[in-house]
Amino acid sequence: MTGGGGAGSPGQVEGSACEHCLRRGMLIGLLAARIADELGSARRNPSAVLALDDERLVAALAGADKRHEAQRFLATFEAAEAEARVLAAGATAVCRHSIFYPTRLLQLPDPPAVLFTKGQVERGFATLARGSAVALVGSRQASPYALDMARELGHGLAAAGITVVSGLALGVDASSHVGALEASGFPVAVLGAGPDVVYPRANVRLHERIEAKGLLISELPPGQRPFRWSFPARNRIMAGLCEATIVVEAAEGSGSLITTDFAQDLGRVVGAVPGPGGWARARGSNALLRSGAAVITRTEDVLDELSGIGVRRKVHDEEDDEGSPAEGGGSEHAVLDALTSGGGVDAACQATGLGAAEVRALLARMEDSGCLHRDVLGGYARGSP
Amino acid sequence: MGPRAGGGPDPGHAATRRQLDLAEVRGQPDAKRALEIAAAGGHNLLMVGPPGAGKTMLARRMPGILPPPSFSEALDITRVHSVAGLGGGALATERPFRSPHHTISPQGLVGGGARPRPGEVTLAHRGVLFLDELPEFSRPALEALRQPLEDGRVDIVRGQQSVSFPARAVLVAACNPCPCGKAASACRCGELDRARYQRRLSGPLLDRIDMVCQVSAPPAAQLVDGRNPAAESSSGVRRRVIAARAAQAARLEGQTAACNGEMDTATARRHVRVGKGSRRRLIRSLESGALSGRGHDRVLRLARTIADLGGRERVVEADLDEALGYRLVSPELVAV
User: Fold this and answer.
1) Where are the domains of chain B?
2) What is the pLDDT of residues A355-385, one digit of tens each?
3) How far apart are CA A89 and CA A281, in angstroms?
4) Which of A109, A112, A131 is nearest to A188 (CA)?
5) Is residue A56 part of a domain?
6) What is the total count of domains within chain A?
7) Are the beta carbons of A279 and B185 separated by less than 8 Å?
8) ipTM of model over 0.95
9) Residues A267, A370: one domain?
């Protein structure tokens, strides 16, 4: 099966998608809206549909009018033309017959025929082939605690040389990518839209940064908008790419749990960051822990899961300490602890035994040194905004 | 129309009520300290905390820690209230505390009507205007409040004639930390909901607010136990406030401003001298964008009041630090 562009030679990713696979990838793009209609309430798991071969897919999905169009598309497909379209979007298509295609992904029952990618494509696939990759997932509407944890894990894993994979959504996803970028890691984002489509718009800067420093991957061709089904489909790719999937925070029925379902089916490691008991928005992740997922409270916990306890350690520990509170008595630590456990200034007063005036002054100094920041309403959180 | 007509009992008129004492409020060290500073310098305060934490309770105790009105202030208050038909004509002995509901119209808040009548901000003249649930007030109402708070008076123009009402009040506002207002453990508001809620506040009124403090729900055990350890009474706080105001009055003699909160930029820069270390700190904050030009003036005025409360003629670095701790950060889009 090596028509059209043919599999590329090593070091040359351009055009490493064969005609058949490229046609399949484009067909998915063509039928994306129909898939959405067809899946209806079953949109949580599009695998059954995506596993069909081209002809059956067309037969199953397209109504009379669309079937005609789809069949004409299959019959008249021109690989060169499709390649030109992909190239024009600045993207690269890599099919499952290419030597670049991540082998871990092939273990999926329905691996995407083609990955449309943007960014540091060559380095990206080399990194995914060689090294460990961990998916950090969680809710878009995440708590400040979860955002902190996502960023810390993203940072720590990237510093330990592990590729951090996430979905470039708001909340946990974005924080995970930011953490990885801060550690000068190689961020990989798997998208629910075409690789050149920024979704959601709020992530436009992050999208650009990942394209510059990492890899954007999608099953949908360039220009394709996201559909509800394309997010669970994206989740199966994340689970497939990674040795472990860590849920940072998820409510019941959260999309992140779809990712862990896929990971579990593949026999990969599933972990979760414990959330406070009784928190509705951590109920999904806490339920995972109850059913036996690994308890993740820091980067080392993930490393232990991947390579055995204590085998690997974070490499850039010194760097982590840089942003820590300035020296000076331990009151800072008590204040930080009080704030991170959800208390306010009053809790910090109680914890340190200092008066409100002293605590306010101390908070301002800590903010100045960058270990705290504040929202519009004066609420404090760790780190810089 | 906001003000109630006629001479019936009016819940907003403090003289008819028992004096409320700060000692009755458990815990809340941060909010109490902030109230004291706000009273001492006439600074506008925003209290942020979950429902039931005691924001209204604290705000109601503000008049009790402000200095008692001077004779001429008492006349001012009485005059305004008799125009509005409140107070029964007796000379006011207490500063007013007004807390209009958030459904109030712009006219109700700042005054107006065919025969111009004073609004809530005028009825709060020389006292406290409390806006609970600040984000729930209509935008036009908050916009209307902006100028009176800046100038200390309201000008109402009606055809040929214009009327001017005094409106020099300390603004105390309150809101929830997030839209749902639930405790942290039950809250499911996301980043975006919170950002949206905070943005709603940002424009019109936040730049009239000088300081923000937190009000936390007191631990249940503290509520059940009758004890209220070491809570200071209003009269003790009031003594410090009076001393701080006296220091300001002496410093600002001959100026239009009567207290630190009323100083304009030039006055503030002339009268608030900071040390070398503090100066460096301010420059750094300005350069990094953590502090805006307006925020800088506000921090200076606040630091001056904190030093006045401490009986210091010079503003020391700790005063500045504390002032910076209460400042508002400018709202921005969610950072990713």
Assistant:
1) 14-219, 234-326
2) 899 899 888 887 876 667 787 778 887 665 5
3) 38
4) A131
5) no
6) 2
7) yes
8) no
9) no
